[in-house]
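pipeline stage [seq->struct] | target=CesT family type III secretion system chaperone | organism=Photobacterium damsela subsp. piscicida | residues=149
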Amino acid sequence: MSQAYTLAINELYKALGLDQPNEVEEVISLQVGEMVCHLTEHPADSLLMFSSLGAVTDFDVSLLLNNNMFSQELQKPEVAIDETSGNVILWNRQPLLNAYGQSLYRQLELLSQACDRLTGVESANTALAAEASSETQSQSEFSPTSFRV
C-alpha cells in the first residue's frame, strides 16, 4: 500500500465530510445507500473502487453490456462478472497521481449512480414482466450524509 493511496483515502474522507480514519487499511469499505463500495490500490498507483451488484441471472445481460459502451468519462464505471461467484461487479479506477478530493468524490459518485441505474433497471425489468411501467428511473441518492464506514 503506497503513501499516495493513504493520502487519497484521507482526501476522499475529507471530501465526504467524514472523520479521518485512524488507520488506512488495504481495502476500505464504504456504504452509500444500499451499495457497499470497496476501495483499494489495484494495480499499483491506481485507486480501484468496486461493488458487487448480485447474481448475473438477476440482470438483462444486454443492459449490462450497454453500460460498457464508450464514454468521454475516464472514471466511468465498467461491468464485469466475477468468475467465482457469478456476481455482477461494477468497478472504476483512476491513477493515484491525479487523485484529489473532488476527483475521488466524482469517482465514487459515478459508481453510486451506475449502481442505482443498473439495479433500478433490474427492478424495472422484473416489474415489467408483471405489467408495463412508464416510470422514469430514480435519481441517484448519492450524498455524503449517507455514508457509513
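stage status: PASS
auto-comment: The longest strand covers residues 46-55. The beta strands are 27-32, 35-41, 46-55, 78-81, 87-95, 147-148.
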